[in-house]
Specification:
The structure holds two protein chains of two kinds. Chain A is an alpha+beta fold. Helix content of chain A is about 35%, strand content about 25%. In chain A, about 15% of the residues are buried. By secondary structure, chain B is α/β, with parallel strands linked by helices. Chain B has a single domain, classed as Rossmann fold (3-Layer(aba) Sandwich), CATH 3.40.50.880. The longest helix of chain B is centred in the first third of the chain and has 11 residues, at about 65-75. Chain B is globular.
């Protein structure tokens, strides 16, 4: 089973990397860009075969280590 | 006073920190991150600057789960004094021993220079030898020093005199250096025994090297 965790800065917390990339896209002529957010993706291979318990475990991992919930949000996909 | 200085893989300011406290006639011990216990006679724990675990994931995020940090938390809960400098500050916020978080600098650059910082509150042991509103010249060297805290948290820090230092110019007017909320450069916990700051007082010990204001700060811990 594979868990994919996307970690992003919370809405309302300035994302300087996103802002700089937005600016760069604009100077390349990509005028339609409204906003850019840059985050990171963590891919975890799990021994577990039960989706529900895997989700619970990855939720715990995200809260404990993978995201700093003071500034970051995350979402989890399990396949 | 006995000062225990933590070393993680990637710490690089431990010897400067040791030099600083020995210059002030304290005895120092370097403590390895895999150790389970701080030395018995520890009076002050210093988490020195550097790049623990290569800043992987987030600065300080992995170091905060090391063996020794459990005992540092116990030590702080018992009222022991803890000082985190730069990466040490990041580790303390990740460990939730200090409020807030340190984000990437708003200009995305690693900033390394001498910086003026203003003493905001001195009703704590760390800055007790400094005057309120005094401007100190202390080097900064960081990529992730952009202090963030939400509004309610900021108000709480202000109400409890937990803001230690802010970035400023030579006149003491606040300056935007890295994007920190209200230019915050250092904070302490509510109990005022855990201190964190991005500037490096251990790099400001000799006038010939630009400033000895760091000595004044670290002297606060002299009993």
């Amino acid at each position: 089973m594979t868990a994919t965790i996307n970690v992003f800065l919370k809405e309302g917390v300035l994302d300087p990397q996103g802002k700089a990339t937005h600016h760069a896209l604009g100077s390349l002529g990509f005028d339609s860009v409204e906003d850019v957010r840059i985050g990171k993706q963590v891919i975890i291979k799990l021994k577990s075969t039960d989706k529900e318990s895997a989700l619970k475990e990855v939720e715990d991992m995200s809260q404990t280590l993978l995201a700093n919930t003071v500034i970051e949000d995350y979402n989890i996909e399990i396949n | 006073m006995n000062v225990s200085i933590l070393r993680f893989l990637g710490t690089n300011c431990e010897f400067d920190t040791q030099y600083a406290f020995e210059k002030l006639n304290h005895s120092t011990t370097l403590v390895w991150h895999q150790d389970e216990k701080l030395p018995e006679d520890t009076d002050l724990v210093v988490i020195a600057g550097g790049f623990s675990y290569g800043d992987y994931l987030r600065s300080g995020a992995i170091a905060r789960f090391s063996n020794i940090m459990k005992d540092v938390q116990r030590f702080a809960n018992d009222g022991g004094k803890v000082l985190g400098i730069c990466n040490g500050f990041q580790i303390l916020t990740e460990a939730k021993m200090l409020d807030g978080a340190l984000k990437r600098n708003n200009n995305l650059h690693f900033i390394s220079k001498h910086q003026n910082i203003k003493v905001i509150n001195n009703d704590n042991e760390f800055l007790s030898k400094c005057d309120k509103n005094e401007v100190l010249n202390i080097p900064i060297a960081h990529a992730d020093g952009n202090y963030y805290i939400e509004e309610d948290g900021l108000k709480e820090l202000e109400d409890n005199n937990q803001i230690l230092l802010r970035y400023c110019d030579s006149n003491g007017d606040l300056e935007v250096v890295n994007g920190s909320v209200t230019s915050i450069a250092g904070v302490c916990n509510k109990e005022k025994n855990v201190f964190g700051l991005m500037p490096h007082p251990e790099r400001a010990l000799e006038l010939i090297l630009g400033s000895d204001d760091g000595l004044k700060m670290l002297q606060g811990f002299v009993e």
